[in-house]
Every structure is written in C-alpha cells, then in structure tokens.
C-alpha cells in the first residue's frame, strides 16, 4: 500500500490530497472538497498531466505571442513539448484560437494561440 | 473643457468591467483613459492559465480573459483613449491628462472610477544593500520584457519573495531554459497560492527557503551573486547564517502596492491597512462621486473577483450620476473595524444609503489559521460566521452580509476566532 500527498492545482483552494495506491491502482482519494479534486488526485498519482502555456515566435515578426495546449499533456513530456513549440515558427498574422501545432509531440493535444498577432 | 458623466482611469480588468456595468445600468457618457497601447491591463502579459474559473467556468489565460472584456467594450462602442496618461485629479473631479494626439487636456467628470491597479515593491523600497549592477528586476517587469517584448532577463536567477508573480515567473523561466536557483521568502509562510508552490516550484525541484532574505547584492556591471541570510522573529538577519549564491539576476517579487498617487492628489482618504482608498459599501471614497475598484482599492488574488467588484462600482457610478446614490458621508456611516487576525478590510464604512440587500466584506487574514471562523460583530452580537479549514494571508476572504443585520449598530467588527 502506497500513500502519496499532493496539492490540488485546480482552483486557489489548494486542497491537500492524500491518495492511496495498491499495486499502482488508486484505491482512495481524500482531502478534496470537490469532485474535480478527486479526479485530479487520481490522475496525478497515476499519470500526471499539465497544460503548457508558453511563448512562440512567428517566422515574420520580432515579438513573440502566447500559446497554450488545448488539453493537458503528460508531465514527463513537458520539456520535449516546449522544445517543439520553440522550434515551430508559423507565419503572422495569427488570430486568438488558431491551431499553430497539431498533435504536439504525439500527445493528441493541439497548440492554440491565446492572443492575436497582427 | 470636455465633459463626461463617468470617467474611468485605467482600461484593465477593473476599468473595463466598471465601464460595461455602467453601460448596462443606462449610462451613455463613459470614457476610459488607458496609458498603454491597448486595453486589457496587466492580464495582457499573464500568459499562464487559471483565470476565469469562477466567472466563465473555464480556465483561461490572461490575454484570453482580457479579450472577453475588450470585446464587450468594442461591441458596446464604449469610448476609450489609449496612450493617455492622467496627471492629476482635483476634488472637483477635473481630470488633467495627456496623449500624443491631443497633447495636454482636461475633462470635467460627474463621477470618476479609480481603476489604476498596482505597482511592485522595488529594490529601493526594500533597501537591499550592495552594488547597483544590471540584473535586479521586479517579477512583473521581467514578465513584461519576456512576454510582450521577447527578452530573457538573465540566465541564472534568484527570486526574492514567494508571491504569486515570482512563482509564475519561476515556472516560465524553467520552461525557457533559465536556471532558477532558489526562492527566498522573508516570512515563515508563502504569500502565494499553495497551488502555485506546487505547480511552479515543487514540480521543478526549485528550493524555497522561508524566514530568509537577501542582505547584499554583488557585482560590478552585472549581478554576480547575492548574499542570503536567515532572519529571526523580528525579521532581522541572524549573524552567522549568511551564504552566497552565484547568479546573474535577482528577481524581486516582494508585494504589490496600489497605485494611488492620483487618488491622493484628489484628496481621497487613504487606508494604511489596504494602501488603497477608504470606501463605503458602495465603494465610494471620501470624495463624493469618486469610486475605486480592483487592485487600486486592495490587492486581489483572483481577477474574477476584480470583475465582480468593478461591476458593482460601475453600477454605483451610474446611479450616482443619475441622482440615485447620495454623496459619500463617512461621518454618517457605521465604521467597520479590523479585529484580531484581520487585515486589509474593505469597506471601512457602511452607509445608510442602502437599507436592503447584501454587501460584501473582504479582508486578508494576518497569518495562517486552521479550523477557524471569520466572525462579524454588530456591536456585541455576532451577525455572521464563516468557517474555513484554512485561512491564509495568501487568500482574500469574503463574507456576505445583509444590510438589515447591521443597521442601527454603532460599530461593526470583523475578527478571526479559532476553534
């Protein structure tokens, strides 16, 4: 039996979660004050994921623009994902919501622009 | 002189929400003055997510949240001026401003909404000894250089202060390939959200030292190292605990200060507790017809709350201009006092203008309390009690009160009681 502690990152409450696992399977989550916390606890203990928010550069502009992944990506792939974002240079103009990378590092997540770049 | 009914100083989250609400309330004479090249305020440079969970039930990045508010301003065609810097406000509500197109000009307003936001505590304010090399920068300034201009502030960073902005920048720096050596926090606890400690520091094994501070900055033309020492309960450095950390950048994330130079010029009474204006339950200041909302009134944790608060102010300003809300009169109000454990209390007065309905009391706990309750007393009687598992300075508390519950009281006191 394994017990792990996390701080839920879903909202500013920051509930302290205790997740118990048996042979890698989650048997219980406690300390959460809402359902999202329970879901987060299970996910974090088995396959932690994070939304990546970072900057990207357009090939034809000096200033960067901000992007995010459409869904969380596996935490262990975060740096590899950031690297692919860094190496991809789409062309401006770009509109908020545009998909600038499909299927980032094979995670199934897209990278979306979160601002306009004229 | 130009005239306008409602003049809003600042086109960020607070100013835009106030403008939209004033419009909904029926005002058609509104003007937003914004010093930057775009509306949106500080959220334009906050490219991380976590905004809008309460207001839009979605997790948005800063620019996306700002965009929703800008779209409302554009749809309603609410007038605004960019690159416009306000120099002065008089108690008669004459605003002096300037911009490249018009030069210097003045506007007579019937109501003014102060929505100027905050500035950051600087190295000078902290009086950190040492040389004055390049590489000493506040977290928000680094965020602007990086996210709006595309410049890395340095390669090896030490962060002073565990406030949210420093934590967010720590994470972004790591993703950009900058080495974040340590976060140094003066207090024995963090002022930032717990989830930020988790997802910005713990996720990347960045050490966080409590009860410590930077006592010297070294370097000639560029920062070469900082000296860190432990501090005692009096927050003074303990001799013999000094250690030197090699770095090229000291990032200062040591608190936000409401930007109130204009408020003081207008003769607005200020609160030493919030560093913002003293206000009544309509968020009207001591100068009749001048209202305040957002970070300029008190520093918020969630922009969702800034928007809600600012909408209330927009409505109040519109009602004031329409003659439906009387001039503020603190001598004829119930004072609200900070009791034990309570700091940064807003509002500081409850007017008799509203006999019905509810209003919000907001404050920050002075330290960490577990299994405690925030209690509101009207004279000797407890009229509201809000229990919480954890009350911490990093998270603003709100209590909703009925006007009816406090009418007739001499004083209202808010305090924290532990079980």
Written description of the protein model:
- The complex is a heterodimer of chains A (118) and B (419).
- Chain A is elongated and about 55 Å long.
- In chain A, 34% of the residues are buried.
- Chain A folds into two domains: 2-46, no CATH class; 53-113, CPE0013-like fold.
- A four-stranded antiparallel sheet of chain A has the order 5-6-9-8. A three-stranded antiparallel sheet of chain A has the order 1-2-3, covered by helices on one side. In chain A, strands 4-7 form a two-stranded antiparallel sheet.
- Chain A is an alpha+beta fold and 118 residues long.
- The model of chain A has no long low-confidence stretch (mean pLDDT 93).
- Chain A is built from two helices and nine strands; from the N terminus they run βββαββββαββ.
- With 419 residues, chain B is of the alpha/beta class.
- Chain B folds into three domains: 1-120 and 257-328, 3-Layer(bba) Sandwich (FAD/NAD(P)-binding domain); 122-254, FAD/NAD(P)-binding domain; 330-419, Immunoglobulin-like (Sandwich).
- Chain B contains nine helices and 27 strands.
- Chain B has helices at residues 13-24, 62-76, 123-126, 139-149, 164-175, 194-201, 261-265, 303-321, 403-406; strands spanning 2-9, 30-33, 49-51, 60-61, 80-81, 85-89, 94-99, 103-114, 118-120, 136-138, 156-160, 179-184, 208-209, 212-219, 223-230, 243-246, 249-252, 256-258, 290-292, 334-338, 342-346, 349-350, 358-365, 369-378, 381-391, 397-402, 412-418.
- In chain B, strands 1, 2, 5, 6, 7, 8 and 19 form a seven-stranded mixed sheet that branches. In chain B, strands 10-17-11-12-13 form a five-stranded parallel sheet.
- In chain B, helix 1 (13-24) runs parallel beside helix 2.
- Chain B is globular, with a radius of gyration of 22 Å.
- Chain B starts with a strand and ends with a strand.
- Chains A and B meet through strand 5, strand 6 and helix 2 of A and helix 2, helix 4 and helix 6 of B.
């Amino acid at each position: 039996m394994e017990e792990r502690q996390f701080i839920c990152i879903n909202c500013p409450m920051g509930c302290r979660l205790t997740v118990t696992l048996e042979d890698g399977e989650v048997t219980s989550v406690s300390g959460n004050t809402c359902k999202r916390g329970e879901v987060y606890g299970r996910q974090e203990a088995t396959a932690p994921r994070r939304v990546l928010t970072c900057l990207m550069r357009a090939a034809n502009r000096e200033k960067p623009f901000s992007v995010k992944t459409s869904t969380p990506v596996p935490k262990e792939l975060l740096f590899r994902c950031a690297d692919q974002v860094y190496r991809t240079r789409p062309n401006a103009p770009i509109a908020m919501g545009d998909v600038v990378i499909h299927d980032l590092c094979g995670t199934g997540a897209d990278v979306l622009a979160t601002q306009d770049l004229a | 002189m130009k005239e306008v009914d409602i003049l809003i100083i600042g086109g960020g989250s607070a100013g835009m929400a106030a403008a939209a609400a004033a419009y909904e309330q029926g005002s058609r004479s509104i003007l937003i003055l914004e010093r930057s090249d775009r509306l949106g305020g500080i959220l334009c440079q906050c490219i991380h997510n976590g905004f809008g969970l309460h207001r839009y039930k979605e997790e948005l990045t800063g620019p996306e949240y700002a965009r929703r508010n800008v779209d409302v301003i554009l749809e309603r065609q609410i007038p605004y001026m960019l690159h416009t810097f306000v120099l002065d406000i008089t108690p008669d509500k004459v605003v002096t401003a300037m911009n490249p197109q018009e030069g210097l000009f003045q506007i007579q307003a019937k109501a003014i909404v102060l929505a100027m936001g905050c500035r950051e505590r600087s190295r000078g304010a902290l009086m950190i000894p040492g040389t004055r090399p390049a590489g000493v920068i506040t977290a928000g300034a680094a965020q602007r250089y990086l996210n709006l201009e595309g410049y890395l502030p340095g390669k090896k960073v030490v962060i002073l202060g565990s406030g949210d902005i420093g934590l967010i920048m720590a994470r972004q720096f790591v993703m950009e390939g900058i080495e974040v050596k340590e976060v140094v926090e003066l207090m024995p606890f963090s002022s930032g959200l717990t989830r930020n400690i988790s997802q910005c520091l713990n996720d990347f094994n960045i050490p966080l030292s409590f009860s410590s501070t930077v006592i010297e900055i070294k370097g000639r033309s560029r920062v070469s190292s900082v000296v860190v020492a432990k501090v005692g309960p009096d927050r003074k450095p303990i001799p013999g605990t000094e250690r030197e950390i090699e770095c090229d950048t000291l990032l200062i994330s040591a608190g936000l200060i409401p930007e109130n130079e204009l408020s003081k010029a207008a003769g607005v009474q200020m609160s030493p507790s919030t560093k913002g204006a003293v206000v009544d339950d309509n968020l009207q200041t001591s100068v009749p017809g001048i209202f305040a909302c957002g970070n300029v009134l008190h520093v918020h944790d969630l922009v969702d709350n800034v928007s809600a608060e600012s909408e209330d102010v927009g409505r109040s300003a519109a009602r004031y201009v329409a003659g439906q809300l009387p001039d503020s009169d603190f001598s004829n109000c119930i004072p609200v006092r900070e009791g034990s454990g309570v700091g940064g209390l807003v509002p500081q007065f409850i007017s008799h203008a509203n006999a019905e309905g509810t209003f919000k009391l907001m404050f920050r706990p002075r330290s960490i309390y577990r299994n405690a309750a925030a209690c509101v007393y009207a004279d000797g009687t407890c009229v509201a009690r809000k229990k919480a598992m954890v009350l911490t300075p990093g998270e603003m508390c709100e209590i909703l009160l009925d006007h009816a519950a406090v009418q007739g009281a001499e004083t209202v006191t808010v305090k924290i009681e532990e079980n």
